[in-house]
């Protein structure tokens, strides 16, 4: 019972962070940003059925911007998927027997951005473990006024092993990156019928990211 309560409490805290972090982190771009000149970013974040973490986030920051973000800190934010647990978190938007995916739809100020890392959280008992890339990555993208920028789908494939006692251990995940525009833009428009019609595809080529943690779907299938 204590473990269940700890997970439920973590879910509530994690969900609340998106509202509270803007109060303590002046550079954080709130998820509810709205403006007349805003652009929209759409991407998918998911996990395989054998990958079980409490949250999956892609971290981004502003490279340069013509928007007025009033802060001394570098403007930054995250695209997150928090799988639902005990009524808290996100329901997947689509999936199969082997994976579930959530489509992020979010307004941002116009400008040049970059996904520079990821964060995966695993809760066990009263504590949590965070996994991220030890080496920053670079996935640049551009937000244009009144346009949709599609960034691709990022599905996590868990890394698992066993300790000296033979007990299962978690080692984070790698992300399979691919273009699922046809499916995910349709879902995004169902979520928000006012999305702009102009769309720019900026799905990165995982082969050009030079990171062992961002792979093609074919390569990610061999991860265990």
From TrEMBL:
It comes from the Bacteria. Residues 188-210 are annotated as: Disordered. This is Lipoprotein. It comes from Solimonas marina.
């Amino acid at each position: 019972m204590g473990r269940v309560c700890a997970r439920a409490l973590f879910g509530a805290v994690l969900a609340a962070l998106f509202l509270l972090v803007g109060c303590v982190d002046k550079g954080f771009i709130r998820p509810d940003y709205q403006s007349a000149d805003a652009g929209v970013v759409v991407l998918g974040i998911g996990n395989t059925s054998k990958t079980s973490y409490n949250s999956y986030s892609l971290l981004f920051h502003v490279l340069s911007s013509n928007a007025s973000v009033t802060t001394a800190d570098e403007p930054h934010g995250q695209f997150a998927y928090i799988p639902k647990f005990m009524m808290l978190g996100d329901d997947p938007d689509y999936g199969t027997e082997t994976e579930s995916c959530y489509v992020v739809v979010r307004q941002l100020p116009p400008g040049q951005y970059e996904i520079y890392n990821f964060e995966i959280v695993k809760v066990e008992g009263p504590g949590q473990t965070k996994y991220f890339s030890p080496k920053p990555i670079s996935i640049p993208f551009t937000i244009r006024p009144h346009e949709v920028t599609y960034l691709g789908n990022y599905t996590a494939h868990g890394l698992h092993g066993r300790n000296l006692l033979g007990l299962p251990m978690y080692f984070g995940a790698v992300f399979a990156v691919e273009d699922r525009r046809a499916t995910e833009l349709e879902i995004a428009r169902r979520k928000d019928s006012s999305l702009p019609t102009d769309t720019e595809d900026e799905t990165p080529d995982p082969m050009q990211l030079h990171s062992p943690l961002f792979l093609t779907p074919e390569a990610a299938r061999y991860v265990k």
